[in-house]
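$ fold --in a.seq
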Amino acid sequence: MAPKQLNFITGNKNKLSTVRAILGDTVDVQSQSLDLVEIQGTIEDISADKCRRAADVIKGPVLVEDTCLCFNALKELPGPYMYAGHTSFKWFFEKLGLEGLNNLLAAYPDKSAQAVCTFAYCEGPGHEPIIFQGRVDGKIVPARGPMNFGWDPIFEYEGQTFAEMNKVEKNKISHSFRALEKLKDWLEES
């Protein structure tokens, strides 16, 4: 059964407004910022564990989100280590920067990548999280466009980097949009 109110675990107002815009009046989305320990593992394992931890703290229904960048030549790495909200992201991204991320693929002819957004929903303590994931296929290119969000200037989709797209255009095709559409369908069916 779908909740009437959902605690989205984020301190990021932009993420909150995006989630509210896409989910519409399907559910009342409130936000709460929590500092949660994050495990290492697969994209899905990290999201599910984080969701369980949040549900235990909140004692009710929660939604968590993680976004990452996966290089196909590197078998989906850096993947979970490039989650925008993951503690390793800041360290990893500060050390490498956009040029360093490009250099990770210098020895490989395959520059294809996936932008991945994973939302995990948990009804509350003791319940198993449900995963909703969106992926966008693209490729890694030298940086183009403004530096508004992490790796957007190097992820190209159909000739434009995410950084070169306006927000409305990006939100119609983004990995976040695709994951939220799945969540919205599930909420409406429940």
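$ fold --in b.seq
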Amino acid sequence: MTTDLHARQADLLWILLFTIASTLTTLIFACATPFPALAALAAVHLDRRDGVLLMVAAWAVSQAVGFCVLGYPWDAATALTGVAIGTAAVAGAIVSSLVDNRVPARSTVARLAIAYVAAFAVFKLAILLWAPVIGHADVALSLPILQRQFVRYAAILAGFYALYRLLTAAGVPAPAAAPQPVTA
């Protein structure tokens, strides 16, 4: 029982740490919360339920930062766009977790890369499905913007993973679903 409690505490700590890290990127890039990067991290290091929880937490904080700090307009169209982004983030987390569970990659970096590509594709597909309702699909899904976002979020993923490795090396307990080092 104590082990389960400690594992749950470690999982919740990482949800908090990843949410804080994504909030900082939201502030730095002014509204570009890296949901696909977070979804990849969640797929590899958290169970699916906690991955969804991470997406919801990061989305809620992102919305709060957007409306309260970055000056998003308080109107229905902006709120609906937020809902679209939230559902896209959750969809990305779910699909990247499913992909991670089915792809036989052994290395954590390969797993992160595969989960990231899946999360990015699903996130953007979900936004495309919302486009008739929220508009602006031509801007959000133009090739130059997609390329820029793909590279930016991949770089953020690399930074988040480096932070994860640094913190676990410093003694922060890894999430329960994190791959355990193989000992000989």
